[in-house]
Design goal:
The structure holds 2 protein chains of 2 kinds. By secondary structure, chain A is α/β, with parallel strands linked by helices. Helices cover about 35% and strands about 20% of the residues of chain A. In chain A, α12 (about 265-270) packs antiparallel against α16 and α13 (about 295-310) crosses α14 (about 340-350). Chain A is globular, with a radius of gyration of 25 Å. Chain B has helices at about 25-35, 45-55, 70-75, 115-130, 145-155, 180-185, 205, 245-250, 285-290, 305-315, 335-340, 350-360, 365-370, 375-380, 385-395, 415-425; strands spanning about 1-5, 35-40, 55-60, 65, 85-100, 105-115, 140, 160, 195, 215-220, 235-240, 260-265, 275, 280-285, 330, 400, 410. In chain B, the strands form 5 sheets. In chain B, strands 1, 2, 5, 6, 7, 8, 11, 12 and 15 form a 9-stranded mixed beta sheet that branches. A two-stranded antiparallel ribbon of chain B has the order 3-4. The two termini of chain B are about 40 Å apart. Classes of the chains: A alpha/beta, B alpha/beta.
């Protein structure tokens, strides 16, 4: 029988894989952790590996591929289809969608109420935000929970409404897999498991994997410890580091050739990550622009003006060669509260923009949503500049990236009682920097309005780790846009 | 009936426009100029749309008039010689910035609507897609193809007209932001476009050199950013005085409702030649080719103007006409002619005074430029201006061509010639 899949019996390295990617694709016989820095072809390698493995499966065997978001799942399905993989042999989805499927499939074996529903955050009444966050953190960072009164009250409340919350989807699935018959059946079914963004998995997910990835089932995890940024949601970068202890025997492979950023940007981000050196495979010329503004408003104006320049101007007076389009540009910030002043500045110049939110645990409204089947179909593909938090930028890339508010209390975050883990904040900055392909603008304001207070700001310490010769300092230009001579005439003509 | 229409203007809500660019001043200046149908412009802008709803009322089918409440105070300011009926037509312009296969395209397109309802539908749809409140000519990351689709879906009688199609930065065929053909830009929907706007820097004969433009009728408008710039270019119709009359004149290939167009001398346009404004490099296309397109001052590629771009895309020799060709007359705005006759700046007080004086004695600007007997002009405005208008009618003027955003400069008289004309006349 002729297989559509290009990997069937293929022993030759395809031209679109480099040597280390090919090694990762071909690796057999043990669990595998692929450590893949930004732009090293993480998804590319993972999808090729899946495509490589699928032809060796028996007809009743499947592959389980876990992604970080529903969107990533859709993209992976598309890529696999493009490689000629038959989707019938696959389950691609998030941990949550896979676990929800298990709970529905094996409903009889769970202790869940009949017709249980997923609790929507806006439905939950009578518990304050702090309490809910604390409980969510317990559920995602501890295997055995010693329930306190609040916890018990909350669980009772959920059960009264026949609800389970987002974290419980995973915890209930873990309970279900204590049933050895079910676990064994799943192991016979899913012979290979792939997990993307492994650096952001949590202890519950780790426990699920430990149950599923044994008795000959092989796990491939891929990720980058330097990009672990979801500790506040219970992710544990330590899990990445102890992969070889959790899954025996395991091999670790590194992908070090980066195809995303221009060499100077790659060097700069490596310096922020303590001298990390990835191999730059692009020879594009990029700019690393540093800008200090007097205030957050001046900073936003600077960003808006640079964007207009990059797009080649909007009228006869500002017109110049268009280097980039609206969709090529992202503006990233630490706190969503910083977005407002940027929106204003972009609106003033009429620059189309959209505010992207980070993947919300709360964005689930039905099983279909959770399984990624209700992806919004936009009627028109409209380009806009993207505004988003550094967290939301995970996994994305843009030719031009602005990181605004490179200030010491924002990065690392230590402001009005909000405090991030310094190491994780550094990784977050690194994630932001490595989103840029060609140009990266790092900007800061001396004075900033936040949450109704005026703050006097100092530069973020991470900036000092970047070698001076990589930086281009740009001063603020106080020129207002030149008026159209036609418009200037207030007299008769 | 015969009438003149200027179908591309803006409101005060567009970027870089005059603060007094409102309906009252459009009404006023249309009469000074002799325009019968003037575009509203900017109907996508919510505040402007509100003003249109408030101040206009339906008149002839698809046309609107300024309500008496706002028209009457203006009427008093207008010399009797210039008074005429003014109607508004609903129009908007959209700036599309969108990447297709690694090339960023920036294209401006006009939309004409027969009713507030049809215009409102487009406004609502575009409002869902992007920000239409910041700029009367909104910038959207929407492909021109999709904009055309939205226009057609909103109302079958909407008209979609690619604006100033040769402008380097912002047009469908422009050297910098454009496509190589209408079909590249609009694909299977191209057949729903009936007219294109030539813009100030090109004249009809330049457009006739492209077979791909044969199916489109060429229209000319001012793209005014201030009331006084109305009618820099315009269209002369002889058809039913209604939206439908105009629709038919543009869409029906056998209709003769569009009689002729009034054109800028294309050399006077901002982008006729190639060059760099900042480097003061002004090149004829041949010069550009000689320099391989690179500026002799800064070494960067020059802004390729309209003449060059036409030459690149042309597939027909000069001197041939297209199927839907119309006669045209080149004009120079009267204030510029007065300024040239008096050797003063076009914005000077002397020009303003003379302008209002001749208008009040002779009639509106188009009448003076196109029809008024030269002897009448002599009597009212002197021999030099009369001779200037005479030379303009015959096309006997010299122009240093515009380039890279700089308007061309006209020259009608050589030094000493003005005095000579005056003396000669005083002999009689």
């Amino acid at each position: 029988m002729k297989s559509k899949c290009r990997y069937f019996n293929s022993m030759q390295r395809p031209t679109d894989l480099n040597e280390s990617q090919w090694q990762a694709v071909r690796h057999m016989g043990t669990h595998l952790l692929i450590s893949a820095g930004p732009g090293t072809g993480k998804t590319h390698t993972l999808t090729h590996r899946i495509a490589h493995i699928i032809p060796s499966l028996k007809s009743n065997e499947k592959v389980l591929a876990i992604t970080f978001t529903n969107k990533a799942a859709c993209q992976m399905k598309d890529r696999l289809t493009a490689l000629g993989v038959d989707p019938a042999g696959l389950f691609v989805g998030t941990f949550h969608s896979f676990c929800l499927k298990l709970l529905r499939d094996y409903f009889q074996q769970t202790a869940l109420p009949k017709d249980f529903k997923i609790a929507l955050p806006q439905d939950i009444q009578g518990f304050d935000k702090g309490t809910l966050e604390r409980i969510a953190h317990m559920k995602s960072s501890q295997l055995a929970i010693a329930p306190d009164d609040e916890y018990k009250a909350y669980q009772r409340y959920l059960r009264q409404n026949s609800w389970i919350d987002f974290d419980d989807i995973l915890r209930e699935a873990l309970l279900l897999l204590e049933n050895e018959d079910i676990a064994a059946f799943l192991r016979r079914q899913y012979r290979y498991i792939f997990v993307d963004e492994y650096q952001d998995s949590n202890i519950v997910q780790n426990a699920l994997l430990k149950i599923l990835a044994c008795d000959g089932v092989l796990l491939t995890a891929i990720g980058d410890a330097n990009q672990s940024i979801y500790g506040f949601r219970g992710s544990k970068v330590e899990l990445f580091r102890r992969f070889q202890e959790d899954f025996l025997p395991a091999q670790i492979l590194n992908l070090q050739e980066s195809y995303r950023s221009s060499p100077n940007l790659l060097a700069a981000s490596g310096q922020v990550m303590g001298g990390l050196e990835l191999l730059a495979k692009l020879d594009t010329k990029g700019k690393l622009v540093m800008h200090t503004a007097a205030s957050d408003r001046a900073e936003a104006d600077y960003v808006a003006q640079q964007i207009e320049k990059l797009i080649g101007g909007f009228d006869m007076n500002t017109s110049r060669r268009a280097q980039h389009s609206l969709g090529d540009i992202a503006v990233l910030y630490r706190l969503n509260a910083q977005g407002h002043v940027l929106s204003k500045a972009l609106e003033y110049l009429g620059i189309p923009y959209q505010i992207a939110r980070k993947p919300q645990r709360a964005s689930v409204y039905s099983d279909e949503d959770l399984l990624g089947q209700n992806e919004e179909q936009l009627e028109y593909n409209v380009e806009k500049v993207s505004l988003m938090s550094l967290h939301a930028a995970k996994g994305l890339e843009f030719p031009v990236v602005f990181i605004v508010g490179c200030e010491e209390n924002l990065l690392p975050l230590d402001l009005m009682g909000m405090k991030g883990d310094p190491q994780e904040e550094r990784r977050l900055f690194y994630v932001g920097m490595t989103r840029a392909r060609e140009h990266l603008y790092l900007t800061l304001a001396r004075r900033r309005q936040l949450f109704g207070r005026t703050l006097m700001q100092n530069p973020c310490a991470f900036l000092a780790d970047i070698a001076e010769e990589l930086k281009a300092y740009e001063a603020a230009k106080h020129s207002t846009p030149k008026k159209d001579p036609d418009a200037a005439q207030m007299k008769l003509f | 009936m015969k009438f003149i229409a200027d179908l591309h203007v803006h409101s005060k809500y567009s970027r870089a426009t005059a603060k007094n660019l409102d309906l009252e001043n459009l009404y006023l200046w249309a009469q000074y100029k002799g325009i019968h149908i003037v575009a509203t412009g900017d109907f996508t802008h919510p505040k402007w749309f509100k003003e249109l709803e408030e101040k206009l009322e339906p008149a002839e089918s698809g046309l609107f008039k300024l309500k008496d409440k706002w028209a009457q105070p203006i009427d008093a300011q207008i010399p009797k010689s210039c008074r005429g009926q003014v109607r508004f037509m609903l129009t908007a312009e959209i700036s599309s910035i969108k990447k297709r296969e690694d090339k960023v395209h920036k294209v401006h397109n006009l939309i004409f609507s027969p009713s507030l309802k049809a215009a409102g539908k487009i406004q609502t749809k575009l409002g869902e897609i992007g920000n239409i409140s910041s700029d009367g000519r909104p910038i959207l990351g929407l492909d021109p193809y999709d904009l055309l689709k939205i226009t057609l879906q909103a109302d079958a009688k909407n008209l979609f007209v690619p604006a100033h199609i040769w402008t380097p930065w912002f047009s469908v065929l422009g050297s910098m932001g454009g496509f190589d053909s209408m079909a590249d830009a609009f694909g299977d929907l191209t057949k729903h476009i009936f007219a294109v706007e030539t813009g100030l820097s090109s004249d009809p004969p330049m457009n006739w050199r492209l077979k791909q433009l044969d199916d489109f009728i060429l229209i000319s408008n001012s793209d005014a950013h201030s009331p006084a710039k109305l009618g820099r270019e315009a269209n002369i119709f002889d058809t039913d005085f209604s939206y439908d009359g105009i629709y038919k004149a543009l869409s029906d290939k056998n209709d003769k409702g569009l009689v002729s167009t009034l054109e800028f001398f294309p050399e006077e346009g901002k982008y006729h030649f190639d060059g760099h404004r900042a480097c003061q490099v002004r090149w004829h296309p041949k010069e550009t080719i000689k320099h391989k397109g690179l500026c002799s001052v800064c070494g960067k590629p020059v802004t390729v103007g309209v003449m060059s771009r036409v030459e690149i895309l042309a597939d027909r020799d000069e001197g041939n006409k297209s199927k839907r060709w119309r006669p045209f007359q080149n004009i120079v705005p009267l204030p510029e002619l007065i300024a040239e006759a008096k050797e003063v700046g076009a914005n000077s007080k002397a020009v303003q005074e003379t302008y209002m004086n001749v208008l009040s004695k002779l009639g509106n600007e188009f009448y003076i430029l196109l029809e008024c007997p030269i002897d009448d002009i002599k009597r009212v405005a002197g021999d030099v201006l009369a001779e200037g208008i005479n030379r303009m009618r015959q096309g006997k003027i010299e122009i240093a061509a515009g380039y890279d955003g700089e308007f061309g400069t006209i020259k009608i008289f050589n030094s000493g010639e003005r005095e000579h004309i005056e003396k000669q006349m005083s002999l009689f």
